């Protein structure tokens, strides 16, 4: 078994250091580890550079560039490439980070269960942040949860706009007794990738190569899990039922205008 391989083109590769991939999304994928590395004189695209991987004691694969036995793709629009041994596709277990944000496991497109971080819980269809945060004192000296810790703060921008659009769409559908609803939101796939990458060492190309997101429902379902949307839907439906019950003058009476 083996994880992903990475190729960073460098015209004159010398000593390996994080500067080789600084400024690339690869820096976040390799955060906290010292990757195994070797110089490749002719890698993907025929260029010289560094071949990298995260060390795996259980791996039986050598760190070599063998294009006939490997699958490679460029991490567009960036310059580095992502690959894996064709007969040993990386698994969720291999890619899982040491520190994760707790959440719910869901089956993604490759048939494995992946833990999606829980960003919000949604009692009464209002978002309550569940990301790791320090306990701080408010103006009255009371202990409260502060802002999410720095590594996870960006997830609020990932999930927040989706949650707002989702609630608006569901409330409209429920109010009009419509069975279906449409969530209008941009960058749906990239938002889902950011959530998966919180707990696993992947980014856009890795998610695509593993075929984790299936049609437009896949990324939407990842986002729904991350913000507790099932709870929000149940509350919106229950709220409408209560309002309709309160709008009757009696069991057989007409609705109150």
Structure description:
- The chain has helices spanning 26-29, 92-95, 150-153, 155-175, 188-199, 204-209, 217-226, 229-246; strands spanning 5-9, 36-40, 49-53, 70-74, 81-85, 103-107, 113-117, 120-121, 128-129, 133-137, 143-148.
- Strands 2-3-1-5-4 form a five-stranded antiparallel β-sheet. Strands 6-7 form a two-stranded antiparallel sheet. Strands 8-9 form a two-stranded antiparallel ribbon.
- It has 257 residues and is an alpha+beta fold.
- Helix 4 (155-175) crosses helix 5 (188-199), helix 4 (155-175) runs parallel beside helix 8 (229-246) and helix 5 (188-199) crosses helix 7 (217-226).
- The chain is elongated.
What is the secondary structure topology, with strand pairs?
Elements: E1 5-9, H1 26-29, E2 36-40, E3 49-53, E4 70-74, E5 81-85, H2 92-95, E6 103-107, E7 113-117, E8 120-121, E9 128-129, E10 133-137, E11 143-148, H3 150-153, H4 155-175, H5 188-199, H6 204-209, H7 217-226, H8 229-246
Antiparallel strand pairs: 1-3, 1-5, 2-3, 4-5, 6-7, 8-9, 10-11
Helix pairs in contact: 4-5, 4-8, 5-7
